[in-house]
């Protein structure tokens, strides 16, 4: 695949030659924005195309930031309230669950 960059500002992913935005941006950004970006490029309206690129970049940054916050909150939730388990404790728990005795 040739090195064609996504049209969204701030996105560094590659895209196919026949695409204007990468698969991630296409899935994340609203359809109206994506379709307007493609239409502006095809019509040759460069000022509108650049404005849509910047708007897409802002929306992508907001989405990635909220996803990062969501994942870190989930990690905190999963790790909270449970002390770390050592290898010896895990082995003993496994034996207890299987009904094995020393």
Describe this structure in words.
The chain is mainly alpha-helical and 102 residues long. The chain has 4 helices and 2 strands; from the N terminus they run E-E-H-H-H-H. The protein has helices spanning 23-28, 31-43, 46-79, 87-98; strands at 4-5, 14-15. A two-stranded antiparallel sheet has the order 1-2. Helix 2 (31-43) runs antiparallel to helix 3. The longest helix has 34 residues, at 46-79. The radius of gyration is 24 Å and the shape is elongated. The mean pLDDT is 86.
Walk across the major sheet and give the strand order.
Answer: 1-2
The fraction of residues in strands falls at under 5%
Structural class: mainly alpha
Largest sheet: 2 strands, antiparallel
- Put simply, the count of helices is 4
Overall spatial form: elongated
Reading the helices and strands in chain order gives EEHHHH
| Rg measurement, Å | 24 Å
Helix content: 55-70%
Task: Pick out the low-confidence regions.
Answer: none
Q: What oligomeric state best describes the polypeptide chains here?
A: single chain
Q: What average pLDDT do the residues reach?
A: 86
Find the count of extended strands (DSSP E, 2+ residues): 2
């Amino acid at each position: 695949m040739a090195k064609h960059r996504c049209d969204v500002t701030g996105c560094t992913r590659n895209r196919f030659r026949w695409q204007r935005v990468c698969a991630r941006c296409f899935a994340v950004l609203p359809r109206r924005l994506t379709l307007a970006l493609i239409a502006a490029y095809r019509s040759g309206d460069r000022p509108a195309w650049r404005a849509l690129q910047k708007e897409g970049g802002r929306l992508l940054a907001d989405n990635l930031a909220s996803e990062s916050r969501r994942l870190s909150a989930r990690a905190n939730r999963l790790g909270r309230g449970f002390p770390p388990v050592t290898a010896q404790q895990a082995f003993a728990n496994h034996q207890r669950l299987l009904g094995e005795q020393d």
